[in-house]
Amino acid sequence: MLKLQKDAPLGRITGWTSAKRRALCDLLRNGCTITGACGELRLSRGHFYDWMRAGEADDASPEEREFYLEVTQALGELENTVASTFKAHTFDDWRACEAFLKRRFREDWAEPKAKHTEPQVEEELTREQWVSLHELIGKRL
After folding, report:
1. Looking at the whole model, is its pTM more than 0.85?
2. What pLDDT band is residue 119 in, cutting at 50, 70 and 90?
3. Cα–Cα distance, 10 to 119 (Å, whole number)
4. 39 exposure class (CB count in 10 Å sphere: 0-12, 13-18, 19+)
5. Sequence spans of domains, the chain
6. Could you give the CA distance from residue 70 to residue 141 in angstroms, rounded to a whole number?
7. Residue 65 class from Cβ within 10 Å (0-12 exposed, 13-18 middle, 19+ buried)?
8. CB-based contact 26:37 (threshold 8 Å)
9. CA geometry: angle at 50 spanning 68 and 82, to 5°?
10. Cβ(70)–Cβ(21) under 8 Å?
11. What SS3 string covers 87-98?
């Protein structure tokens, strides 16, 4: 299991060898989710995301930047592989690739969620209107 050094700054990758980084990237490149890849390597998702944020920052250490770039590259390679497969199978059964892309890369591939809007009420109903509406519904049931 990966451990943080007692006096190390928060998020410092201790015991994180290039072999472990390579294993993480291979899992992601092969389509594993971040949760699944972290679970396989006994790494908490929180630490993963801490290291990704640290690696993206302007003041990132070389180790943090390398981690960020390797993971980003692995995810880009996965998306490219699936997108190429999607393109190659457009006239075959491309639905599996599309479903994968929509789930794995929601931000870029999923359809935007419909915005919920409240119906516009033109005017308030009077008590008499409510009573007659209630009676009408009662007759239909």
Report:
1. no
2. low
3. 49
4. middle
5. 18-109
6. 63
7. middle
8. no
9. 45
10. yes
11. HHCCCCCCHHHH
**Are the C-beta atoms of residues 4 and 14 closer than 8 Å to each other?**
yes
pLDDT digits (tens, 9 = 90+) for 2-46: 443 444 444 455 567 788 889 999 999 999 999 999 999 999 999
**CA nearest neighbour of 74 among 66, 64, 62, 86:** 66
What mean pLDDT is predicted for residues 72-93? Answer: 85
Would you call 97 exposed, middle or buried from its count of C-beta atoms within 10 A (0-12, 13-18, 19+)? buried
| Residue 61: Cβ-neighbour burial (10 angstroms; 0-12, 13-18, 19+) | middle
38 CB-near residues (< 8 Å, 6+ apart): 24, 44, 45, 48
- Alpha-carbon torsion, ordered 91, 96, 98, 99, to 10 deg: 160
